[in-house]
Amino acid sequence: MLRSLFTRQRSLLKEQTGFSAIEILVALAVVGILAKMAAPGIVRTVEMYRLRGATLGIYAAMQHARMAAVAQNNRYAFSVSGSTYIVHDDDDNDGVQDPGEILTTKNLNTEAKGVTISTAGLALIFRPDGTIVTPPPPATVPVVPVEMTVSNTTGSTKKRHYRV
What we know:
By secondary structure, the protein is α+β, with helices and mostly antiparallel strands. It is 40% helix and 27% strand.
């Protein structure tokens, strides 16, 4: 009886289950080929979302400057240069950056690498009533269409038309 038990265990050990090294290598090769085919699509999707996020971030900063101008009853300036935008809290409403006035600068390349903003020297000055001062002051326009093109290094662009 004991001898038949050992014989049975030996025969079970000889019938090993699992995968051979060749089967594992073939499976890894198939997974590698599929990953290589999917990688460009994933990279494009990530770049698209970075571009979209940068565009929405710029729009949110413009709207924040406008709302802050109304809430704090003073002018706020929003300007764009390269891949950087600047929001200036002009406490004394003189249009000049004075010591003590809050200046927020954000470079888009810190969050979305390779993103640039192209505008024709966009500079918006929000008045305390939410309208925009257009040169020369004191002319105001309640709704101004703003066109901004945000692009990245791969050539993808996101053109936005904002009504501010």
